[in-house]
Structures are given as C-alpha cells and as structure tokens.
Amino acid sequence: MTINAPAGQWVEIHVIVLPAGKRAPQVPEDTRAVPLELRAKGFLRAAAALGDAVEVSTVAGRTLAGRLAAVNPAYDHGFGEPVAELLSIGPELRKILGSAS
Fold this sequence. Notes:
alpha+beta, 4-stranded antiparallel β-barrel, two-stranded antiparallel sheet, 20% helix
C-alpha cells in the first residue's frame, strides 16, 4: 500500500548528511562507522509518496529537502526517567521560602 501525502501535509523527511567513512577523524570509531542522519518535520511543498524525494517548509520558515519518511508524524521524545533526588526539591524549596517570610 502506497501512502500518498498532499501538498501542505505535516510530514517527516530523512537525509543522510554525511555517509559512513566521511565523518570527522576525531569522532569515535563506532560513530564514524555509521552515517550522520537528519530527520526533520515540516509541511510538504508538493504531493508525494513515502520514499519520494521531497521539499518541506519547516515551522521556522526553512526549506529542506530529503526523502519522505513519515506522514503526520508524532513527537515521541521524552526527558527520560525521573531523578529521585530532584523530586523533593520543589516541596523543600517551598518549605524553606515559606519559613523565611
């Protein structure tokens, strides 16, 4: 099944910025062994299907080119697991500030 996206659709593109072997010599060997990749989200400038070479306009107004990787992609990043030592800072600070006034 081919997923077609109309112009103006929110999409994600994928670009190989530097292929493996072309990375800077000071990067660790395991990093040098893989390509430097870019994934960016934006609004599709012309209708396309997954895998097509496309251009997008980002929210910041930039125009980027790459391969169409996803249609209507979600943001799925997080800030990791909570740090136990930081969870009590807010209540402790309120207690200190409350007693100072």
